[in-house]
Amino acid sequence: MKNQFNNYLPNLKVLYVLFAFLLLVASCKKAESTNQDSTTIETRGELVATLTSPPNVPRSVGNRAAKKLLVNMEVLEKEGTMTNGVKYNYWTFGGSVPGSFIRTRVGDEVEFTLKNHPDNKLPHNIDMHAVTGPGGGATSSFVAPGHEIKFSFKTLNPGLYVYHCATAPVGMHIANGMYGLILVEPKGGLPPVDREYYIMQGDFYTKGKNGEPGLQAFDMQKAVDENADYVVFNGSVDALTGDNAIVAEVGETIRLYVGNGGPNLVSSFHVIGEIFDKVHVEGGSLVNENVQTTLIPAGSATIVEFKVEVPGTFILVDHSIFRAFNKGALGMLKVSGEEKKDIYSGTIQEGIYQPEGSGIQEMPNGNKKEVADVEVIKSLEEQLSAGKQIYSQTCFACHQAEGQGIPNAFPPLAKSDYLNADVNRAIGIVLHGKSGEITVNGQKYNSVMTKQVISSEEIADVLTYVYNNWGNNKSVVTTKMVNGVKNSH
Amino acid sequence: MRTIGLTLSLLIATLCIAQAQVSPMVIIKGGEYIPLYGSDSVKVKVASIKMDVYPVTNLQFLNFVKENPKWRRSNVKGLFADKNYLSTWQSDTILGINLKKDTPITEVSWFAAKNYCECQNKRLPTIDEWEYAAMADEELPDARQKKTYNQFILSWYETPKTNKNKIGSTFKNYWGIYDLHGLVWEWTGDFNSVLISGESRKDVDKDSNLFCGTAAIGATDLMNYAAFMRYAFRGSIKANYAMRNLGFRCVKDITDEKL
Q1: Which of B194, B229, B230 to mutate to test the interface with A (most CBs of A within 10 A)?
Q2: How many CB contacts within 8 angstroms connect chain A with chain B?
C-alpha cells in the first residue's frame, strides 16, 4: 500500500509541472512572439541547403519558416595554387578554402552529413561554433576516409559563426585550410542589401619562404612559432585580386561576411577608402557604426556593411600592413559608375606627389641654362641601343620585357594609345611620375609610377627605344625635347 | 543462437589453406620507448620480432584470395569487411585496371589482414611494435627528434595518391625495413585499443581523446604531429573498414632457438 502511494505521488507532481509549463509557454507566446525561446521554434518541412564557394553566399532565408535543413559537405584533400608558381596541398570543406558557406535561420534543425572522400588520407570532423553541444559537433562527426557521418543540431543563436576541423593535430588541419562560415539569420532574415560577399582570412606556413616556387609542404615549426609565410584572403594570394576582384556599382550597399580561420593570427580588417557604416561586432548582435578597422579574432567572424559612394578600386587588407603587401592579405573591390567629384575629387589635382620635383624646377636660371646647354646629338641606332639598356634596368620590372605591362596593375607600353597620343605627356610622366586613374587601350589603370631619377639624355634614349618598338609610332625623342618639358613648369 | 553463429564464423575466419607467400623479413631488436599516449611517461617494452621488409602487395593478396575463396569480394561477410573491400578490383580474382602487382594492397579490412598474416604463420604487429619500428630513419633507431624525419612523414601525409607507388620506393630504415612511412597507413592488431587503456578515462569515449584540448593533455610529445595523425587515423577506423590508403604488413615472434 505504501509503495503504491509512493508511486502515485510523483505522477501528480509530473502533471502539475507539466500544467505549469504549458501555462508558461502559452503566456510566452502571447506576450512576445518576436522574442521566442529559439529551442521551442518548430520546424516545418525539409530543405536541402544551397552551399556556395567563396566569395559567393547563398540567398537570404527571407521569410521562410524554420525547417529541417539538409547540409551535405565533402572533405577533399587537394593540391591548389597559393600564388604564381607556388602550390600547396589544401585540405578543404567542399573543395574550397574557406569551405562552403552555409546559410540557416534561427530554429532550423540542421541535419549535417560529412563525407570524407576515399582518396583522402586522414580522418576529419567538423566543429561548428553555431552548434550548442559537445565539441560543436566534433565528437559526433569524426569520419574516416571513404565514409560519411550524420549528426543534427538546432540553431539557437543568430550570428555569423566559424566552423573548422578539430581532428588532432587541430592546428595543422586548420592551417591547411579546414575552416569556413555558417550564418544563422534571425527570423525574417537580415535586412536586404544590394550585394553580399564571403571572405575569410587565413595564415599559412610553408617549408620554403614566401614566393619560393614549387609544391610547398606545411611547416610545423613555423606554425608553432606563429611565423606565417602567407596571410591571405580566401585561400590564396590572388583569390580576390585582378579578375577575381569582387565588384559593385556606385550607390549600392555591400555586406561582407568576413571570417578569420587563423590558425594563429588576429585580423585587423580594413577596406582602404571606405568606412564601415555598420559592423556586427564579432558576428554577434552588437552593431557598431562608422568603423574604420575592425578586429576579427582567430576563430571568429564579423559582418560589415557599407554603401559605396564613388567609383574606383578599394583594397581590402589586414591592416597589420606587412601582411597585406608582403604576405598576400590583400583583396580588391572594384566599384564602377559615375564619379562624384563632390565626394572625391579624383585624379587631376591630387595625383602627383613630388617631394623634390618642385624644388628642382624652381632652381636659379643658371641651373636651367646648364640643363639646356647639354645637348647631345646621337644617331637613332645609338639611342636605341642605349635606350634598350636603360629600359631593362629601369622600366622592365613593371612594364615587362615586351612592353606588355601587367593587367590591372601596370599599363602596357606596346601599341599604347595613351603613349602615342602625346610625346610631351610621356616625357612628363617619366620626369615627374604619375598616379591616379588613366585609360590605356580601353583598360583603366589606377596605380603609381614614381618619378625616374635618370638624366634628360637617358630619358630621351629610353623613350625613343619605346616609341620605336612594339608597334608604337616611331617618334624620336631628343634631349632638347626632354629639357623643354623639364623647363616648362 | 546468434552468438554461436558468430563464434563459428570467427573460428572459420581463422582457418586457412594457403602456401606461405614469399616475403623477406628482418629482425627488429627489442627495447623500450615512450609512446605518444604513454601513461605518465612510463616506458613501454617491446620484444624482439621479425617484421616484413615491405607491405603486403596486390599480387600477394591476390594469390591469397585465390586460395581462400571466403576472402573473395563476393563471398566476404559484411561483418568482416565493408562494401569498399577490394572495390576497385575488376572481379573476385582480377586486380583493378589501375592497380599494379607490386604496389601495396589496400581496401582490405582488419579481419582480412589478420587472417592473411595468420595464414603465413605470422600476425599483425601491435601498435607499440609498429611505432617502435617506425621511429627509425635511415641512420637512427629513434629519429623522432629529428626535424627532417618529422617533415618527411608530414609531407607524405599531405601528398595525394601515394598508395599507387611501388613497395620499396621510400627509404630503407635503420632496421632494414621499407615504406613504414610514405606509401599507405598500416593495420595493427590492436589499432583500436590504445586510447581506452588510460586509467581514469576508462569511461570516456575513445575518440574524444583526439579532439582539441584533450589531444594535447594526453600526449607526451606535442611536436610529434605525425604521431598525432596516426593515432587520430586509428581512432577513426573500425575493423571491417576497407580503405584506399590503408594496407598492412605482418610480423613474427622470435622463438628462442631462432635467436
Answers
A1: B229
A2: 106
Report pLDDT digits (tens) over A384-438.
Answer: 988 888 887 778 778 888 898 888 888 999 999 999 999 999 999 998 888 888 9
Q: pLDDT at position A405, please?
A: 86
Second-level CATH architecture of A40-191: Sandwich (2.60)
CA distance A264 to chain B (A): 15
Are the beta carbons of A139 and B207 separated by less than 8 Å? yes
For B208, the closest of A121, A139, A176 (CB atoms) is A139
**Distance of alpha carbon A425 from alpha carbon A445, whole angstroms:** 17
pLDDT at A248: 96
Of A35-44, A123-132, A293-302, B201-210, the range with the lowest mean pLDDT is: B201-210
- Cβ distance A169 to B223 less than 8 Å, yes or no, reads no
* Three-state secondary structure of chain A: CHHHHHHHHHHHHHHHHHHHHHHHHHHHHHHCCCCCCHHHCCCCCEEECCCECCCCCCCCCCCCCCCEEEEEEEEEEEEEEEECCEEEEEEEECCECCCCEEEEECCCEEEEEEEECCCCCCCECCEECCCCCHHHHHHHCCECCCEEEEEEEECCCCEEEEEECCECCHHHHHHCCCEEEEEEECCCCCCCCCEEEEEEEEEECECCCCCCCEEECECHHHHHCCCCCEEEECCCCCCCCHHHCEEEECCCEEEEEEEEEECCCCEEEEEECCCEEEEEHHHCCCEEEEECEEEECCCEEEEEEEECCCCEEEEEEECCHHHHHHHCCEEEEEEECCCCCCCCCCHHHHCCCCCCHHHHHCCCHHHHHHHHHCCCCCCHHHHHHHHHHHHHHHCHHHHCCCCCCECCCECCCCCCHHHHHCHHHHHHHHHHCEEEEEEECCEEEEEEECCCCCCHHHHHHHHHHHHCCCCCCCCCCCHHHHHHHHHHC
What ipTM was assigned to the predicted interfaces of this complex? 0.76
State yes or no: pLDDT of B194 exceeds 60: no
Q: Are B151 and A118 a contacting pair at CB < 8 A?
A: no
Residue A99 confidence class, pLDDT cut points 50, 70, 90: very high
pLDDT at B191 (0 to 100): 83
Same CATH fold assignment for domains A40-191 and A357-488:
no
Q: What is the pLDDT of residue A285?
A: 94
Q: Which residue in the set B155, B160, B241 is minimally distant from A144, CB to CB?
A: B241
Which of these CATH numbers, 2.60.40.420, 3.20.20.10, 3.30.2000.30, 2.60.40.10, describes A196-336?
A: 2.60.40.420
Check CB contact under 8 Å for B243 and A118.
yes
Q: Select the residue of A125, A144, A219 nearest B243 (Cβ to Cβ).
A: A144
In this prediction, residues A88-116 reach a mean pLDDT of 96
Partners of residue A128 in chain B, C-beta under 8 Å: none
Report CB contact under 8 Å: A138, B84. no
Computed over every residue of chain A, the mean pLDDT equals 86
Nearest CA distance, A267 vs chain B (angstrom): 22
Among 3.30.70.2740, 1.20.140.10, 3.90.1580.10, 3.50.50.60, what is the CATH number of B23-258?
3.90.1580.10
CATH superfamily of A357-488: Cytochrome c-like domain (1.10.760.10)
Residues of A in contact with B239 (CB under 8 A): none
Q: Where are the domains of chain A?
A: 40-191, 196-336, 357-488
**pLDDT range class, residue A31, cuts 50, 70, 90:** very low
What are the sequence ranges of the domains in chain B? Answer: 23-258
Pick from A127, A146, A168: CB nearest B243:
A146
